[in-house]
Amino acid sequence: MKLELTINGRVHSVEIDPGEMLLDVLRRLGYKSVRRSCNSASCGNCTVLMDGKPILSCTTFAARAMGHNIETVESLSEDGKLHDIQESLLETGGAQCGFCIPGFVLTTKALLEENPEPTEKEIREALNGNLCRCTGYESQIKAVLNITRKRGGHVNE
């Protein structure tokens, strides 16, 4: 089955198996930020944005992505400069081993686009599906509050 996928603004014409998952196609195309971990929609490591909304690519058929804009972490840096979400995670110690970070970054990006001044409770709810074995989540939550503050938003801690 042949389809066209728009990934990070670039159109890819790709041959897939009808039952192939988006995660596998993205990795085959070289988008290595998309990580396989639980393979059962439990950890959020495979999160990508589809039309700006977080989805789990390990349980999304690749064919379902046709006609939609897919965004991975590779789209965020410009000229080698990290996105402010990535910088904030580094500043607060939220990156640790880094394995789960692409999912956190994209989920945070979607949250802040929908709600530029989230409360701590709203951040916790948004990041609920992203598992981290290193940090205990406090540093990721601080990173999101830090971004809100840096962007000139009001922070309710």
UniProtKB/TrEMBL annotation:
Alphabetized CDD domains for the sequence: fer2 (cd00207)
Keyword field contains DNA-binding: no
Keyword line: 2Fe-2S, Iron, Iron-sulfur, Metal-binding, Oxidoreductase
InterPro entries: 2Fe-2S-bd (IPR002888), 2Fe-2S-bd_dom_sf (IPR036884), 2Fe-2S_ferredoxin-like_sf (IPR036010), 2Fe-2S_ferredoxin-type (IPR001041), 2Fe2S_fd_BS (IPR006058), Beta-grasp_dom_sf (IPR012675), Diverse_Oxidoreductases (IPR051452)
Stretches assigned to the 2Fe-2S ferredoxin-type domain: 1-76
Source domain of life: Bacteria
One function term, GO molecular function aspect: oxidoreductase activity
Name of the protein described by the UniProt record: (2Fe-2S)-binding protein
